Amino acid sequence: MNLKTRLGILVSGRGSNMEAIVQACQQNQIEAEVAVVISNQPGALAIGKAKKKGLLTVLVPNGPDLETKIAALLKEHRVELICLAGFMKILSPDFIRQFPNRILNIHPSLLPAFPGLNAQKQALDSGVQWTGVTVHLVDEGCDTGPILLQSVVPVEPQDTLETLTQRILLEEHRLYPQAIRQRITSNLKIVGPRVEWTPKKGER
Ligand code: GRF
């Protein structure tokens, strides 16, 4: 029997978080396998990277039926957990309701600080000394869903946008697989704004 959780990864760009997730699966750090990688951008670097790893990739160009096609693909490939990894499209409530508590996103700040685009620049411009990474469940808002895991990253006095972005990205690559692992091995209950975790039977 195959006990691995089937992941669908949605990408639009570089795909470094996708690579981190794939590597964690291949190294058995998480009991999961990537069933499909879906991009809405024809030129996304992520697609080439996924193909090189032998993964099934599908391009669904932006258009009125984007979400219908993506939902159909996810169901066709029996995806159990959807990981947004630099997917540059806000998903509609209709789409999200089809996969309750099964859509994860990674954001390069300590939410609720600095939601939306250019989170690293927002942090730098604001003068904070600490920022970080958040993995959260996707709800109907923009970067507002229940927080699964967070990790803190320092902002150094000499940081440029590039150095800060890079330091955050390294932390993203560590945190996303960890959050997926926790999501897979735990039952979760949403209590108000919070996520409560209890290990599944046989997990610790
Ligand atoms: C990451 O910074 C992620 O937090 C944000 O978009 C970026 C995607 O990078 N949502 P990559 O495509 O995973 O390299």
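^ 5-O-phosphono-beta-D-ribofuranosylamine complex. Residues 13-17, 46, 85-86, 106-108, 169, 172 surround 5-O-phosphono-beta-D-ribofuranosylamine (CB under 6 Å). The chain has six helices and nine strands.
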